[in-house]
Amino acid sequence: MTALPRENVDAYPRPPALEPVPQRITIRLGGTVIADTTRALRVLETHHAPTYYLPPEDIQATLRPARGQSFCEWKGSARYFDVVAGDATAPRAAWCYDAPTARFKPLAGFVAFYAGLIDEARVGDTRVRPQDGSFYGGWVTPNLQGRIKGAPGTGHW
User: Fold this and answer.
1) Mean pLDDT calculated for residue range 88-107
2) Exposed, middle or buried: residue 121 (CB in 10 Å: 0-12, 13-18, 19+)?
3) Which of 12, 118, 120, 144 could share a disulfide with 44, CB 3.0–4.6 Å?
4) Domain range holding 32?
5) 0.85 exceeded by the pTM?
6) Integer CA distances (angstroms), 62 to 41, 58, 103, 128, in order
7) pLDDT of residue 157
8) Does residue 152 lie within any of the structural domains?
9) Left if phi > 0, otherwise alpha if psi is -120 to 50, otherwise beta: which for 105?
């Protein structure tokens, strides 16, 4: 088991950075591995836990379009999916940017998952927990230091 390197979310950049993920990413739903990749990308933004995006070819679940969309000032318009694996369904548990801004063009079609709406997500050997709150989709790991947005009272700083 390899420990993740220490990172301070207060030192993450703004505007956000996009970088490849050196660790294997795995996601489970309904007792089944629904994603397994060594080709993930992550977005790092000040005071946010990293958000991980997976290539669609490495996702074995069915992604059914869900209602609603959102807009990120950095990445553009996102659409959402219900995630289905066998008898398990996680409503509105994933999203993607079909046509992200130029800076985030490599994210086009890659899919991110809310850690709190699936059974389990791992970065390497480390199990993640969801970023606090219902808006942000960051994955919190024990190596992160600093103040992570998402909890009540942290929305506008």
Assistant:
1) 97
2) buried
3) 12
4) 11-51+60-143
5) yes
6) 21, 12, 28, 22
7) 65
8) no
9) alpha
